[in-house]
Design a protein that fits this description.
Blueprint: E1 2-6, E2 9-12, E3 17-24, E4 33-38, E5 45-50, E6 57-59, E7 67-72, E8 77-82, E9 91-97, E10 113-114, E11 118-123
Parallel strand pairs: 2-11
Antiparallel strand pairs: 1-3, 3-8, 4-5, 4-9, 5-6, 7-8, 9-10, 9-11
Length: 124
């Protein structure tokens, strides 16, 4: 099982990026998937997640109204559209998948599979 995150890069404050997470080795269409991020010297933190069957979403307060999580079950993929980026959004972003179907967890321990991370740098 592999999760491959991509789409990171360098962007100016106020700009946008779209992260992608491609899953292989098993289907996650019925499972909760999420994004986490880790800034230098900080712990990995929850960003957003989406349920498997209902498509319900949950975001950390700091990204509400700016980020949008989505998924394409036919492609076994998940996305994070990030708008109005701020320097404090700078981090390595990780995609993750849970064995849970509809209960979203915000702690890293609730997720069973992890991607390798993609770096997002927002300049001021």
């Amino acid at each position: 099982v592999q999760l491959q995150a991509s789409g990171g890069g360098l962007v100016q404050a106020g700009g946008s990026l779209r992260l992608s997470c491609a899953a292989s080795g098993r289907t996650f269409s019925s499972n909760v998937m999420g994004w986490f991020r880790q800034a230098p010297g900080k712990e990995r933190e929850f960003v957003a997640a989406i349920t498997g069957t209902t498509g319900g979403t949950h975001y950390v307060d700091s990204v509400k109204g700016r980020f949008a999580i989505s998924r394409d079950n036919a492609k076994n993929a998940m996305y994070l559209q990030m708008n109005s980026l701020k320097p404090e959004d700078t981090a390595v972003y990780y995609c993750a998948a849970s064995l849970s179907r509809d209960i979203i967890g915000t702690q890293t321990g609730r997720y069973d599979y992890w991607g390798q991370g993609t770096l997002v740098t927002v300049s001021s």
